[in-house]
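[retry 2/3] Cytochrome c551 peroxidase: previous attempt timed out, resubmitting with same input.
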Amino acid sequence: MSNVSIYRLGLMWVLGAGLAVPLMAAPLDEALKPLPAIAVLDPAKVELGRQLFNEPRLSVNNTLSCASCHHLETSGADDKAFSLGFDGKPVSLNTPTVFNASLNFKQFWDGRVNTLQAQVEHVVISPVEMGSDWKTVVQNLSSLPVYQNAFKQAYADGVTAANVQDALATYERTLLTPNSRFDQYLLGNTEILTIQEKYGYQRFKDYGCIACHQGVNIGGNMFQKFGVMGDYFKARGNPLESDLGRYLVTQDEEDRHVFKVPSLRNVAVTAPYFHDASAKTLEEAVDVMFKYQLGRTPSQEDKDLIIQFLKTLTGEWAGKPL
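[retry 2/3] Cytochrome c551 peroxidase: success.
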């Protein structure tokens, strides 16, 4: 065998003869995990769910669809502090992104339901969101040949409330945003992040952010009190019923001001932040977290590094960066 010079460039072995061979890097062993591949799902149910996601007939006055508040072309939410319900009035909580919601252990800020199907059920009948009822929704959809045919292809029993909820949940399971630069890093492409972004990730771990923002969705898998190290609500003022969080579900005093920890995936594009939309920028949100959740005062450099890291969590939808 002839002598050929071999050297490494990025994730390739490059031979002196000009041949580049991919180098298979091992995934990193980290507490944070890359997004899984989208599951193989029934295409008829996925397509039906997509149509229903964009269907305003789910609301009582045919004005509001899921897509009205969950903009898939941008953040999976909207840019309002509080989305508008069917009556044009703002709801009481900031709308979370629908992207990667299937990976959360509970749904809604207060975690009152366990499944995407139940989340759909609640939103449709909510008096401040879609304001409808399931009997009316089924009647409206059953009257349209396009839905008669689509449901017949996907479900043996046709148009039912359970099937509407299942189709929407099936579609939402496809709404994952893979290929963030941080995911690529976790999968072994350690050169894709800058040194500052890597330092930011280390600071994220060192300061303890990772204690709550963990796992595959970098959050979304536990409850936490808002204001562990200080009274956030007293400092903010103007207390609201929605600030009570999970207490409204359980009536347990220990659940006062407790919320589902949000996912940090795509956090750079999902402003404003928190259930009350009080943080208008990512920088403000990081300041609040340090003060009221961690009780620590970082240097400006450390905050800047963490924000640089958080920006690496933005993934792709439909093959395009968010």
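[retry 2/3] Cytochrome c551 peroxidase: Residues 282-294 form the longest helix (13 residues).
[retry 2/3] clearing retry counter.
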